[in-house]
C-alpha cells in the first residue's frame, strides 16, 4: 500500500505534467554520490523545478527515517547480518542526505526543507497527508525500540519503507530534467531493491512460521 509521502509525491507529479512515469530502466553502472552539486547546463522549467524540490523535501526525511531505524538495529538486532546492513544503510543514506541537502541549497536557495506536506498547496493538496505520513513513520520508529522479536519487526518495517523510496525514485526519474536527480534516483532504486530482496530472504530463513506482515507498517 503506498504511503502518504509517496501518494503526495505521485499527485504532485501528476499535477505538474498530467501523466504518470513509466517504469525506470536499471542503470548501466552505480552512481558515485558527491555532495557538491554539478551545474546543470540549462535551468529546468518551473514544472520540473517544482517536482525536483518536492522530491528532495520528501526523500530527505524519508532517508532520515531509515537512518533512525538502522541506528536502533545497531543496538537491538540479534543477527550480525542485520547489524551489518544497518551500518550500510546509515553510511549510504547519510551520504545521500548530504548530497540532496547541498542540491537544495544550490538550486532553491536554502538547505532547510519545509515541514512534510507544507509545500503542497500548488498541487491542490493540504499538508495533512504528508504530516500524517511523517507521524506514522515516527510511530514506527518508536515502536522498534521495544518490538519483540526485534529482527522480525525491523524487517517488516524496513521492507515497505524501502519500497516507498523505490516508488518515489521511479517517479522522479521519469519527471526530472536534471541528470543529478536521475542518477541519484537510479542509484536508490538499485540499492534498495537489492536490500528488499535480502530482507525478504532473511525473513523466510529466520522466521519461517511468522505471519505475513501487515501492509503499510512503515513509511
Characterise the protein shown here:
The structure is a single chain. The protein has 219 residues and is mostly helical. It has a single domain, classed as Ferritin, core subunit, four-helix bundle (Ferritin), CATH 1.20.1260.10. Helices cover 66% and strands 0% of the residues. The protein has 6 helices and no strands. The protein has helices spanning 4-17, 46-76, 80-108, 128-144, 150-175, 179-206. Helix 2 packs parallel to helix 4 (128-144). The chain is elongated.
CATH superfamily: Ferritin, core subunit, four-helix bundle
Output the radius of gyration.
Answer: 17 Å
- Sheet with the most strands, sense and barrel status: none
| CATH class assignment | Mainly Alpha
Helix amount: 55-70%
Put simply, the count of helices is 6
CATH topology: Ferritin
Strand proportion: under 5%
Order of helix and strand elements from N to C terminus = HHHHHH
Instruction: Report, as a whole number of angstroms, the end-to-end distance.
Output: 10 Å
Average pLDDT reading: 79
CATH architecture: Up-down Bundle
**Strand elements, count:** 0
Structural class category: mainly alpha
Quaternary state of this entry equals: single chain
Low-confidence stretches: 15-42, 117-131
Described by the principal axes of the CA atoms, the overall outline is elongated
- Overall domain count: 1
Amino acid at each position: 500500500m503506498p504511503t502518504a509521502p509517496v501518494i503526495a509525491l505521485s499527485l504532485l507529479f501528476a499535477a505538474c505534467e498530467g501523466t504518470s512515469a513509466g517504469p525506470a530502466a536499471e542503470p548501466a553502472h552505480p552512481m558515485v554520490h558527491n555532495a557538491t552539486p554539478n551545474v546543470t547546463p540549462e535551468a529546468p522549467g518551473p514544472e520540473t523545478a517544482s517536482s525536483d524540490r518536492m522530491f528532495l523535501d520528501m526523500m530527505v526525511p524519508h532517508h532520515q527515517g531509515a537512518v533512525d531505524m538502522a541506528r536502533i538495529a545497531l543496538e537491538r538486532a540479534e543477527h550480525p547480518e542485520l547489524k551489518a546492513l544497518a551500518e550500510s544503510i546509515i553510511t549510504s543514506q547519510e551520504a545521500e542526505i548530504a548530497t540532496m541537502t547541498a542540491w537544495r541549497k544550490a538550486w532553491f536557495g536554502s538547505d532547510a526543507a519545509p515541514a512534510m506536506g507544507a509545500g503542497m498547496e500548488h498541487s491542490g493538496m493540504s499538508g495533512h497527508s504528508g504530516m500524517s505520513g511523517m507521524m506514522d513513520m515516527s510511530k514506527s520508529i518508536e515502536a522498534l525500540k521495544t518490538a519483540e522479536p526485534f529482527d522480525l519487526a525491523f524487517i517488516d518495517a524496513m521492507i515497505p519503507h524501502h519500497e516507498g523510496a523505490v516508488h518515489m525514485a521511479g517517479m522522479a526519474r521519469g519527471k526530472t530534467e536534471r541528470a543529478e536527480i536521475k542518477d541519484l534516483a537510479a542509484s536508490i532504486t538499485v540499492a534498495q531493491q537489492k536490500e528488499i530482496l535480502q530482507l525478504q530472504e532473511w525473513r523466510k530463513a529466520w522466521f519461517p512460521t511468522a505471519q505475513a506482515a501487515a501492509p503499510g507498517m512503515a513509511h
